Amino acid sequence: MSLPEPSSAPDPSNAPGAPAHPAFEPLSVAQARVLATLMEKARTVPDSYPLTLNSLLLGCNQKSAREPVLNLSEADVAEALDGLRQRTLVFESSGGRVPRFEHNFQRAVGVPEQSAVLLGLLMLRGPQTAGELRLNAERWYRFLDIASVEAFLEELQQRPAHKGGPLVTLLPRQPGAREPRWAHLLCGTPALEPVAAGAQAAALGAGLGAELATQFAALAERVQALEQQVQQLEQRLEQAGG
Prior knowledge:
It is a single chain. This protein is mainly alpha-helical and 242 residues long. The chain folds into two domains: 22-184, Arc Repressor Mutant, subunit A (Orthogonal Bundle), CATH 1.10.10; 193-242. 51% of the residues lie in helices and 7% in strands. The chain has helices at residues 29-44, 53-61, 74-86, 105-109, 113-125, 130-136, 146-157, 194-241; strands at residues 51-52, 90-93, 100-103, 168-170, 182-184. β2 and β3 (100-103) form a beta hairpin. α1 (29-44) packs across α2, α1 (29-44) crosses α3 (74-86) and α6 packs across α7 (146-157). The radius of gyration is 28 Å and the shape is elongated.
């Protein structure tokens, strides 16, 4: 079943009389993982949602579709939930013998469904290109094309101060990469990855190696040509002496 086009979903922050949103207070790594896991499971396993603490713990620590892979304890998740509840980003469902938890991300932050999906994926999987985000969002929301993904990312990047400021940033393109990657700002300004410097050094090394290989090949050709000239000269001297 196809989902509606991205432009069809209203932005709650644009509604008449919508309150201004303060600058987003950075989340901890554990809070971001807990929040994003709730956002994921609400869309991918709705029958099991809201989540119990145990289910949430398993989702936070799963090995697939997570970057980085974490090993949070039950106490870590409980502490993260307390902080998120204080900011109305998470609620505890009433009723039932076991407490269950659900997110309130869109209303608390003031973003439409498509933007929430992109932010949730960036929190779960780390920096990604627009194409990767569209592919990874298939089970969350079906974007029509990469251009629609880029449009929502640019909107989040240009988010004005009265709505809380930017929530994503475009990272510098890594050496050898075709496209730049996007990162969320919900945990503060992301640090440039050390591997980028290593990749740059590797790229420079590869370029230098290719240049040396070209020079060596040219030198080998010149040596071969000189050897032929020497052989011809020796033959002429032998003929002249004979």
